[in-house]
Amino acid sequence: MNLANCPRCGRLFANNFRDICPSCIKEIEGEYEKCLKFLREEKMATIQDVSDGTGVSIRQITKFIKEGRISVANNPNMMYPCEVCGVLIREGNMCDSCRTRLTRDLATAAKDESTRNTGPEDKTGSGAYGAVDKFRRP
C-alpha cells in the first residue's frame, strides 16, 4: 500500500488512482456540482460570476474547463485566464499574443544557438571531440 500526503489538505491517505485524498475528491465533486447547477440557471455567466455565486475558486473552475467537465461551448461568456498574462481566453493555455511571442522567442533562441555552434571560426570537426590547432594563428 502506497501512502502519500494529500497536496490539497496535507492528510495522509492510501494513494490509489488519484493523487488527492478521498475527502478532497468529495469536496471537489461538490464544487463541480455547485458550478453545474449555477451554470444551468445562468447561461450567460462569466467565470467571475460562477466563482462569486458558488464560492468555488476561479482556479478550480478553470481546472474543470480544462478537464472538459465544464463546456465553454454551452456558455458563451465562460472564459478563463491565460497562464502567462491573465487575458481571458476560451481555449488552450495561452492567448494568441503570448503564443506568438513564445514562438518568436524560441525561433530566435534556436537561431542564436545554431549560429553559435557553426560560427566561421569553428572548423574543428563535428564529432563528439573537437581538435584545436595550437599552432594556428588567430
Structure description:
With 138 residues, the protein is mainly alpha-helical. The chain has one domain (3-108). Helices cover 43% and strands 7% of the residues. A two-stranded antiparallel sheet has the order 1-2. A two-stranded antiparallel ribbon has the order 3-4. The model has no long low-confidence stretch (mean pLDDT 86).
Give the mean pLDDT.
Answer: 86
Strand sequence of the main sheet, in spatial order?
1-2
What is the percentage of strand-forming residues?
Answer: 5-15%
Rg from Cα? 25 Å
User: What structural class do you assign from the helix and strand content?
Assistant: mainly alpha
Largest sheet: 2 strands, antiparallel
With helices defined by DSSP (H or I, 4 residues minimum), what is the helix count?
Answer: 4
The backbone outline, from C-alpha atoms, is flat
Number of domains: 1
Reading the helices and strands in chain order gives: EEHHHEEH
Write down how many β-strands occur, each being a DSSP E stretch of 2 or more residues: 4
Low-confidence stretches: none
